[in-house]
Amino acid sequence: MTAILIIDDDIELCTLVADYLAMDGYQIDMIHDGISGLSKAQTGNYQLILLDVMLPGLDGLNLLKALRHDNYCPVLMLTARGEDIDRIIGLELGADDYLAKPFNPRELQARVKAILRRVELAHHDSSQTAPLLEINQVTLNPRNRQVQCKQQDVSLTATEFQLLEMLMRHAGQLVSKETLSQQVLGRRLQQYDRSLDMHVSNIRKKLGQLASDEKIQTLRGSGYLFLSGPV
User: Fold this and answer.
1) Closest by alpha carbon to 18, among 78, 96, 27, 9?
2) I need a labelling partner for 143 at 20 to 30 A (CA). Which of 50, 102, 131, 154 fits?
3) Is residue 28 domain-shared with residue 54, that is, in the same domain?
4) Could you tell me the pTM of the whole model?
5) Residue 127 has pLDDT above 60, yes or no
């Protein structure tokens, strides 16, 4: 059974969300403070974490930062409506997606399913038939979900991995933001949504720590292109 951890100090909201998601067959655990939430996230076997930004003891952003040292469980951030800076920082720290409060339960359900689908696809692609990608000093192995740049390991979230894989499979070709949003994030591209930009920025930073040349080119307003060789 798919296990989901909700870390939010709004007990009433947690209960409502838990009841709603339980109808889809998910196993739900709830924690209402940051310190206990971090411990539970690190020791529990969860397929997804719903993480509020405003938490007592340890706020959600610092909790995510600590978690990402050694844990890449998918995280859906819950942010206050209008707090764009929290969303940007959350994505920079490795959140897979965000949702602004108050939210429609159906939108939450859709985001949860989209994230879990990305993880499932990543595991499905681990079959022996999935080809190894070696392009421009970057190696991506769908069989074990490992990425290397110049033979050094690169740790990516599930979202970052699927995004990089799609760009590498179309190396030398422009992939539109709309296509990436539909195929990777599981939703239509929304105006002012910077999720894709932040995920690509994270990939660039991680690859850039090992190679100084640019791997992913941005065509402003159009999409992204994984370079098949140095420019």
Assistant:
1) 27
2) 50
3) yes
4) 0.84
5) no
